[in-house]
Design goal:
Elements: E1 7-10, H1 16-27, E2 31-36, H2 39-51, E3 55-60, H3 66-76, E4 81-84, H4 99-127, E5 130-135, H5 148-168, E6 173-180, E7 183-184, H6 186-192, H7 194-202, E8 210-211, H8 212-223, E9 234-237, H9 241-244
Parallel strand pairs: 1-2, 1-4, 2-3, 4-5, 5-6, 6-9, 7-8
This protein binds NADP nicotinamide-adenine-dinucleotide phosphate.
Length: 249
């Protein structure tokens, strides 16, 4: 199996896209470290992996808290694959943007992702191999009203991805990102409203919302040896949203 004898840490794997990534990596042989804040939901992800014959354990972490990030890096130990999927997404029109959600977005999506990666990549580079895939967003690639801070927080991660690919290429560590388009997960559907979200999906070239599994397939491909000559890219998994551009909004 593709990830046999490998350990993969998937942040934000208590629900949605991260849960599907965790399930798929486990299906392909990885020992998966499931992480997030919600212990009950994480137990559900771990049980689903074990029921399918895979192996996993949970490490609780709040990425907005640097002590918690340090604890996660200590508990995780050496990992072969890191999937930076955890993210918060409080949208706001710029004139209504508050400082509290601005700081939460930056602390979680930017600072937490950065220092988690810094700690784990040091061990990958020392070993001479590893793969990091970060889940960003099309809102970091295109201008979408109401997502100025969220989009910027994920665009920062796209930028880290390119810089890290250059810094660590000679150490054998690859860095890529997947930028999902409109993807039907429970929390995002609740936030946008089912009808409004389906209507957004109907406007992209493929004419529908994406599924968490479809995003997970892109993440796992980039993490795998099948993508061994790919580093420093952000792959849009968006049903053609970026190809259509502004007309899709
Ligand atoms: N669905 C979409 O349309 C879409 C589109 C583009 C990009 N994305 C990105 O895809 C990723 C997954 O989103 P999703 O749709 O699957 O939503 P989701 O189900 O709400 O997943 C978010 C995950 O992040 C974790 N998380 C949130 N804040 C955290 C924190 N402070 N510390 C640690 N973990 C935290 C959550 O776990 P806990 O609650 O257990 O902490 C949860 O597992 C996010 O980064 C999101 O920005 C989603």
């Amino acid at each position: 199996m593709e990830f046999e004898n490998q350990t993969a840490l998937v942040t934000g794997s208590t629900s949605g896209i991260g849960r599907e990534v965790a399930l798929l990596l486990a299906e392909k042989g990885a020992f998966v470290i499931v992480s997030g804040r919600n212990a009950a939901k994480s137990a559900d992800t771990v049980s689903a992996i074990e029921a399918a014959g895979g192996k996993a354990r949970f490490v609780a972490a709040d990425l907005s808290d640097l002590d918690s990030v340090r604890n996660l890096t200590d508990e995780a130990g050496e990992v072969d694959v890191l999937v930076n999927n955890a993210g918060t997404y409080p949208f706001a029109p710029t004139l209504e943007q508050g400082l509290d959600t601005f700081e939460t977005l930056i602390q979680t999506n930017v600072r937490g992702t950065y220092f988690l990666t810094q700690a784990l990549v040091a061990k990958m580079a020392a070993k001479g191999s590893g793969s990091v895939v970060s889940v960003t967003t099309v809102a970091g690639l295109a201008g979408i009203a109401g997502t100025s801070v969220y989009g910027a927080s994920k665009a920062a991660v796209d930028s880290f991805t390119r810089a890290w690919a250059v810094e660590f290429g000679s150490s054998g560590v690859r860095f890529n990102a997947v930028a999902p388009g409109h993807t039907k997960t429970d929390n995002v559907t609740d936030m946008i409203g089912e009808d409004d979200f389906e209507a957004l999906g109907a406007r992209v070239p493929l004419g529908r919302l994406g599924s968490a599994r479809e995003i997970a397939e892109a993440v796992v491909f980039l993490a795998s040896p099948r993508a061994s000559y790919i580093t420093g890219v952000t792959l849009a998994a968006d049903g053609g949203f970026m190809a259509l551009g502004i007309a899709a909004q």
